[in-house]
Amino acid sequence: MTLLALAAYLVENWWQLKTFGHSSREFFLLTGLPFHFFGATFLLAWLQGLDRTKAGQRVVAGLAPAGVDTFGIYLCHLAVLVGLAAAWGAMGLPGAAWLKLPVFVVVTWLVSQGLVRVCRLPGLGLLNWVLFGTRR
Question: Number of structural domains, the chain?
C-alpha cells in the first residue's frame, strides 16, 4: 500500500509540474510552510501561557470541545475548497480577492464542519471509521 501511495504521489507531482510548471509541494514549501510553522508555534505558545492562569484554563477548556472535529475538517477542507473554487468560477462570480477570501474561508469552514458532523450521526459509524478512524 505504501508503494502504491508513493507512486500516486509521484504521478500527481509529475502531472502538476507538466501542467502548471511547478508542483503544489514546491509552492507550499516556499510560501505556505513558514507561515504555518510560525502561526502554529505562536498559537501553541499563546495557549500554553493562557493555560497557566485560572481564567485562561476556563478559556482553554471552552475551546477543547471544538477540537473534536478539527482533524475531520482538516481532511475534507481541501476538497470543499476546490469544489467551491470550481463552482465560483463556473457561476462567473467576481474574482476580486477581497471578496473571495472571506467567502471561501467561511463557506469552506461551515461546509467542512457540516460534513464532519453528518459523518458522526448515529448509523454512520462505518463512514466515520473509514474517514476519521473513530466510531463515535
Answer: 2
